[in-house]
Amino acid sequence: MVLSDVKRYQGLPQIVxxxxxxxxxxxxxxxxxxxxxxxxxxxGEVVExxxxxxxxxxxxxxxxxxxxxxxxxxxxxxxxxLVYGDHDVDENVNFRELIKSWGLExxxxxxxxxxxxxxxxNISVFFLPYIQSFEELRWVLRESRSVLEAADVFIxxxxxxxxxxxxxxxxxxxxxxxxxxxxxxxG
Length: 187
Fold this sequence. Notes:
Blueprint: E1 2-3, H1 12-19, E2 23-27, E3 35-40, E4 46-50, H2 55-74, E5 79-83, H3 86-90, H4 95-101, E6 109-112, E7 116-120, E8 123-128, H5 134-143, H6 145-150, E9 153-156, H7 160-172, E10 178-181
Parallel strand pairs: 1-2, 2-5, 5-6, 8-9, 9-10
Antiparallel strand pairs: 3-4, 7-8
């Protein structure tokens, strides 16, 4: 199950319970995603805003993420992978520290702060967090050539212009990969 640019974590445990995925990937913008976070507070009132600007909303968003992670793992999810998005990078989020401070097992909740390759139920998956520069992206693609040759799925959080570079690179080398990306929006 792949999610991205999560506006609210309320309601997601019910989806996990219905879908019963072995793995959950949050493909970027895990804690920050600009405007649009919406929650229902304890009084049933709708609270909405921007986690970049509203610290109380950010706390609510973080609490809901923590609850979502615990509930997902309790419902049989083997691993949750947190892929850094552009907003997470801009805010200097450290998922490794959060995972540790929340008492979650690092092997079950994985911090994807650098390119990694993981075998997920006999499917070879290459994860790439958000990369700001085209030069670094091209370097990662060159250096990851042997892994990409064996990969079945490529999951990232890149904007359309960088996704085009990735798609061109994969097509040029004829790698048979499903390309999945977060970072919705315009542009």
